[in-house]
């Protein structure tokens, strides 16, 4: 169902014959709308930290003879700059994922490696909050795809789990195989997400609580990056959550078959 947008071109090829070309424009229009929204959102999101930085610079100028104030405002300027840089980094990452062939040269990837590296990278923020990070149920599973992107995806889930959990809480990441799929589940006991919000958290720039997300350095792009990485690998990402009890984000990816080692019609890796 739905409305088809069709572009029709007509050419007279002979006295009696018309050539009619009908091209479905629905997908093209939809992509165009997504791109337009993205540009509007990006400009809006970039203006916030840039505005804050310039305001802070002015404030510092005015407070030049108060060293304590200067230090405080300089610190805030620094954290806005860090946020800006994270935002730019994620925007670039997301744009890269939106073009075809984002996987580069897909290869066999060991899920245990991906999880270990993501945990390693999330460790600093977790330690700062005294959050314990545990890995469970590794199975030597392999998928076919891009290792760096998969590390980014799992890391985004871990960073969120830590950011939206209390001090000294516990975050777990587990791997299992289920019906030919690899499931990487990131479990936290944090603030949780209401069912109405669960549908929206994967949208670009969507944040349940923008003020809180800003305080935690969130950009609102983390989960849309995860969603893109999952889709590019032929998988998906889902969330289970209860407000006040915690959340579980599950990344599901097709398991690699041996023949995947060199791509389609491939040589088999030992
Ligand atoms: P952000 O950079 O703001 O974390 P994300 O796209 O990663 O952006 O997440 C979008 C929003 O989803 C977050 O702002 C937060 O409100 C919510 N969210 C994501 N992960 C969790 C989690 N583990 N627990 C609670 N809320 C979460």
Automatic annotation (TrEMBL):
GO molecular function: ATP binding; phosphoprotein phosphatase activity; phosphorelay sensor kinase activity
Keyword Cell membrane: yes
A biological process term (GO) from this entry: cellular response to phosphate starvation
Domain Histidine kinase: 41-257
EC numbers for this chain: 2.7.13.3
Subcellular compartments: Cell membrane
Principal subcellular localisation of the protein: membrane
Keyword terms of this UniProt record: ATP-binding, Cell membrane, Kinase, Membrane, Nucleotide-binding, Phosphoprotein, Transferase, Two-component regulatory system
Coiled coil: none
Record's catalysed reaction(s): ATP + protein L-histidine = ADP + protein N-phospho-L-histidine
GO CC aspect terms: plasma membrane
Name of the protein: Sensor-like histidine kinase SenX3
Provenance organism: Cellulomonas chitinilytica
């Amino acid at each position: 169902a739905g409305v088809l947008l069709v572009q029709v071109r007509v050419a007279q090829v002979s006295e009696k014959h018309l050539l009619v070309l009908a091209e479905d424009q629905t997908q093209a229009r939809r992509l165009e709308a997504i791109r337009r929204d993205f540009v509007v959102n990006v400009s809006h999101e970039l203006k916030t930290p840039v505005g804050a930085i310039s305001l802070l610079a002015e404030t510092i100028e005015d407070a030049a003879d108060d060293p304590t104030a200067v230090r405080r405002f300089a610190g805030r300027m620094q954290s806005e700059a860090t946020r800006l840089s994270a935002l730019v980094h994620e925007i670039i990452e997301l744009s890269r994922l939106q073009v075809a062939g984002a996987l580069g040269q897909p290869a066999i990837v060991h899920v245990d490696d991906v999880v270990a590296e993501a945990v390693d990278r999330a460790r600093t923020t977790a330690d700062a909050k005294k959050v314990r990070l545990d890995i469970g149920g590794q199975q030597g599973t392999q998928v076919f795809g891009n290792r760096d992107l998969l590390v980014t995806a799992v890391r985004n889930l871990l960073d969120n789990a830590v950011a939206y959990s209390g001090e000294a809480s516990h975050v777990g990441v587990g791997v299992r195989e289920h019906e030919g799929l690899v499931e990487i589940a990131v479990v936290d006991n944090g603030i949780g997400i209401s069912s109405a919000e669960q549908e929206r958290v994967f949208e670009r720039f969507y944040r349940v609580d923008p003020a809180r997300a800003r305080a935690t350095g969130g950009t609102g792009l983390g989960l849309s990056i995860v969603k893109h990485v999952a889709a590019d690998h032929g998988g998906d990402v889902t969330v289970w959550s209860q407000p006040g009890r915690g959340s579980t984000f599950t990344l599901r990816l097709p398991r690699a078959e041996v023949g995947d080692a060199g791509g389609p019609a491939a040589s088999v890796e030992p």
